[in-house]
Specification:
α2 (about 65-75) packs parallel to α14 and α4 (about 125-150) runs antiparallel to α5 (about 160-170). The chain is an alpha/beta fold. It is globular and about 65 Å long. About 30% of the residues lie in helices and about 20% in strands. The longest helix is centred in the N-terminal third of the chain and has 26 residues, at about 125-150. It has 3 domains: about 10-85 and about 225-300 and about 435-485, FAD/NAD(P)-binding domain; about 110-220, no CATH class; about 305-430, no CATH class. The protein has helices at about 20-30, 65-75, 110-120, 125-150, 160-170, 175-180, 185-190, 210-220, 230-240, 285-290, 330-340, 385-405, 420-425, 470-485, and strands spanning about 10-15, 35-40, 50, 55, 85-90, 95, 105, 225, 245-250, 255-260, 260-265, 270-275, 275-280, 305-315, 325, 350, 365-375, 415-420, 450-455, 455-460. The strands form 5 sheets. The protein has a 7-stranded mixed β-sheet with strand order 7-6-15-16-17-14-18.
Length: about 500
């Protein structure tokens, strides 16, 4: 898209995370003079670059799907992603571990996964898997172009034939019931429904439409960039600067005010006037910068938070596989704990070992460990949790669980432990890095709008289309489209 008559010629993008870099490159590709402002001393936002004792750690997203969306960000300025990044296909995408000791590799190739499910639970369940793949792919084909990868202007923008097709696919029913219609084995129900936590809602409360996340992960595939997830940021920054985007690090924006048909943007060191602005912070922060409380739609349900442990393991870790999901005895019981505002007593958790794909992230013989344990957000019942007091005992709890699961955690170096209190200290509302949950009333046209005013837009996980690397990349492009439009 190019600026229409009277469209913006200059723009500021606030925040150099993935959403901000996406917005900046799409604006730059449309001929706009872009200044990218970042309060921190490095780009990346929630995908930071962390080096510790010779290890390159992950403290942000670790699962990369829908890489054609990332490719489109490079293509916005005529660049090829393949020239800038090396992505490795992960097979299996995940390995699922169950409390009885059973292990299920989660392949993205339907034939291989059919055989794996048949070996694991029998041919009847494998046939259910085949039906499930067909359904989630049809959901994806409806949802991606009509509900995810486009700007929505309220409920009327959804009234089209695609809405009926999604309803016919049971997209508005409960996710757990949709999953249950394909799988009778409880372990498979868990393995194909835990992805709803990516959008902040347990399967018994999520809508069936979020089975589309399974299509992204378990049909389209998971990939990993050599050099770690921050390699994506480094590549996008290099491309942006080579195409004329001015990146200013360590420059915090303090106010954005309408003025003279554009906006005056004040920072800790200067003030500038531009035609358009894209904000990539949480909506509540955007409202503060705009001095307009009405700019942020109230959130009734934030996503659960997490405790994240990242460290180097000099002795290495036994086994294979990049991503591992470990289920407790009752996934529903663990999710009930989160809803009640207490840490999971029998946790289900994610472990990633990126050095199994890219050994260069650690010294020879060592591995990088990433362990994510979901916890309540600092909201509602979870607001009463004292993470300063819980920090040490919860770390011990995590280490015991990890050790029982077969990970050598006796000797960790360069350790980073982030609790909900740490996420709050980083400026994230409710102490969660996952923003507002995708409940029905906080999804699609009901989510925080990305249009804040004429040539003033919002990007990031707090607005449409929502949470996750693919979604925030889309949000940057949608925000750019908003400000490039003649009418804002």
């Amino acid at each position: 898209m190019t600026p229409g008559p009277g469209g913006p010629r200059t723009a500021v993008v606030v925040g150099a995370g993935l959403a901000g870099l996406s917005a900046a490159l799409h604006l730059c590709g449309a001929g706009v003079d872009v200044t990218l402002l970042e309060a921190e001393d490095a780009a990346g936002g929630r995908c930071p670059d962390v080096a510790a004792d010779g290890y390159r750690l992950e403290l942000g997203p670790t699962v990369l799907t829908e890489t054609h969306l990332l490719e489109s960000v490079f293509a916005a300025v005529g660049e090829s992603m393949a020239d800038r990044l090396t992505l490795v296909d992960l097979d299996p995408a995940y390995v699922a571990h169950f409390p009885g000791g059973e292990v299920l590799p989660m392949h993205t190739d339907p034939d291989r996964m059919h055989r794996a499910v048949a070996d694991f639970a029998g041919e009847r369940e494998a046939a259910g898997y085949d039906r499930f793949v067909r359904r989630v792919q049809r959901m994806y084909d409806v949802e991606m172009p009509h509900f995810i990868d486009r700007n929505l202007d309220g409920v009327p923008s959804l009234v089209r034939p695609s809405l009926g097709r999604l309803a016919a696919l049971r997209g508005f029913g409960r996710l757990d019931r949709l999953i249950g219609s394909h799988f009778r084995d409880e372990r498979l129900r868990q393995a194909f429904s835990f992805q709803s936590l990516y959008v902040g809602v347990p399967p018994d409360r999520a809508r069936g439409m979020f089975a589309v996340v399974s299509a992204m992960d378990l049909v389209h595939g998971v990939r990993y960039p050599l050099g770690g997830m921050h390699a994506i940021v480094r590549a996008l920054v290099r491309v942006a600067q080579q195409h004329g985007v001015e990146l200013r690090l360590g420059e915090r924006v303090t106010a954005v005010r309408p003025a003279h048909g554009g906006y005056d943007v004040s920072t800790t060191s200067r003030s500038m006037h531009v035609d358009a602005v894209v904000l990539t912070c949480e909506p509540s922060c955007a409202a503060t910068l705009l001095a307009d409380p009405t700019a942020a739609r109230p959130v009734s349900t934030p996503s659960p938070s997490c405790v994240l442990l990242a460290a180097g393991v000099p002795s290495g870790l036994a086994g294979t596989g990049h991503h591992h999901v470990h289920f407790g005895r009752s996934l529903q019981g663990a999710l009930d704990d989160l809803t009640a505002g207490r840490p999971m007593r029998d946790p289900s958790f994610l472990v990633s070992v990126p050095t199994r794909t890219d050994p260069s992230l650690a010294p020879a013989g060592g591995d990088v460990l990433y362990a994510l344990f979901p916890t309540p957000a600092q909201h509602g019942p979870g607001a009463a949790l004292d993470w300063a007091a819980l920090r040490a005992p919860y770390r011990d709890h995590m280490l015991r669980r990890l050790s029982t699961a077969g990970y050598a955690v006796d000797d960790l170096v360069g350790e980073h432990l982030l609790t909900p209190a740490d996420w709050t200290a980083r400026g994230l509302p409710w102490g969660t890095p996952f923003s507002a949950a995708h409940t029905f009333r906080q999804s699609g046209p009901f989510r925080q709008p990305n249009r804040l005013g004429p040539r003033l837009a919002l990007a990031g996980s707090g607005t449409t289309p929502g949470i996750g690397v693919p979604m925030v990349l889309i949000s940057g492009r949608l925000a750019a489209d908003r400000v490039l439009s003649q009418h804002g």
